[in-house]
Amino acid sequence: MASRFADAAALSVIDHLVYGVPDLERGIRDVETLTGIRARYGGQHPRRGTHNALIALGCNCYLEIIAPDPNQPPPDSPRWFGIDELKESRLVAWAAKTADIDRVHHDAIIHGISVGEARSGTRQRSDGTLLSWRLTEPSSDPATNVLPFFIDWGSSPHPSRNAPQGANLVELCAEHPESERMQRSLRMLGLDMPVSHATQPTLIAVIDCPRGRVELR
Q: What's the predicted TM-score (pTM) here?
């Protein structure tokens, strides 16, 4: 079994989990069946070719269900998180909070850790509110999904505040065939998440919800 990322202080650095699905409505139904909570549509990611739906996972933390958006033209580059290649839904990434994207990017380079370039993003909520953020560009390689991307919401309201409530993230597990290397990289990024050895890179979230304590992977 994977090591647990369950300490309250450790969990507080998690901004959100990313659940990649081939079809958004199907993903919403699957998560509702698992948790008893129906995700609320978030909006489109302009020029990224994706759209999402959210449920809150406690204070300032949420689950993002993300899928290709059939109402946008295909983007010029592959969609983030390897979504173009997804045949089945799975937990594809996690985001860590930061108030200084540029420092995180600089420190990662110094330590020889590959993180994406700092980018800006926006999406409009269904109520018309425009959200904006800066992040380190996520990878599309599932072999690196144990390492987070970093996000800063700036002055935008955190998406968890407008998402359906009733669930709480209580544990996050990591497994990887190069577990020691991944764990060293996480510690260099200031994240003390143990990583267990396994044949496939995997993220596993344990969530308290109306259906009880459930596992999402």
A: 0.94
